[in-house]
C-alpha cells in the first residue's frame, strides 16, 4: 500500500526539487530515449531500497514540477506479477474515484504476459491550476522483478478542457501503440 500511495503522490506532486547531482542512471538505460516523436532525457532517479528503482525522463525544456510529457521506468522486486501490479494500481484508482471525478482506467492484457494500464486522473492543488493527467503503464517481467515503462501526459488550467475534449483520444491511441512496441529494458542491478 505504501508504494502505491507514494507513486500517486509523486505523479501529482508539484513540489519536487531535484538537482543534477541526484540523477544517477541505476538501470543502465542508454539515453536519450526516443518515444512518439519526442526525445526524453533522464531527469530524476530514486532507489529507496534494493527492491525498488525509479527513473523519470523529460523532453528538453520541461521540468518535473510542471511537465507536459514524461517517460517513466520502474523496476520492482516484491514477488508480484505484471497482472498483480496493474491490479494493485487499479485498486488505488478505484479508491480515488470518490475524490476525483475524472478518474477512469482500462486494463489491456497482452498475449506475452504484459499488461498495459491506461488511466486518467486529475488534481487541483491548493492555490494552483487544475491538472489533468493521462498515463499508460506497461508492466512486464524482467528477471525476478517487474519492469514498468510508462508515459504520462499532462495539461494544466484552461488547457485541461481542450486536452480532454480534443487531444486525448488521438494521443492515447498513438501512445498506447508506441508504448506496446517500445523496446526498452532496464539492466538488472547487481544484488
TrEMBL record:
Top-rank taxon: Bacteria
Signal peptide residues on this chain, from the entry's feature table: 1-20
Swiss-Prot/TrEMBL keywords: Signal
Official protein name in the record: Chalcone isomerase domain-containing protein
Lineage: Bacteria, Pseudomonadati, Pseudomonadota, Gammaproteobacteria, Lysobacterales
